[in-house]
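WP5 quarterly update. Target: YHYH domain-containing protein. Source organism: Cohnella silvisoli. Length: 55 aa.
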Amino acid sequence: MKKIIVMFIALVVLVGTSTSAYAHSGRTDKNGGHNCSAKSKQKGLCTGYHYHNKK
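Structure tokens (predicted):
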């Protein structure tokens, strides 16, 4: 029973962290894109304007 509880908790943690890894606080415009913040540029996360709703 202990193994099942541990496996369930591990599964919840893995699912919870994998979906939140793609989120960020940037707002998008009518085209589905936005400019990166200065902090994101310093971290190397992006270089400028980019889209999130590519089709």
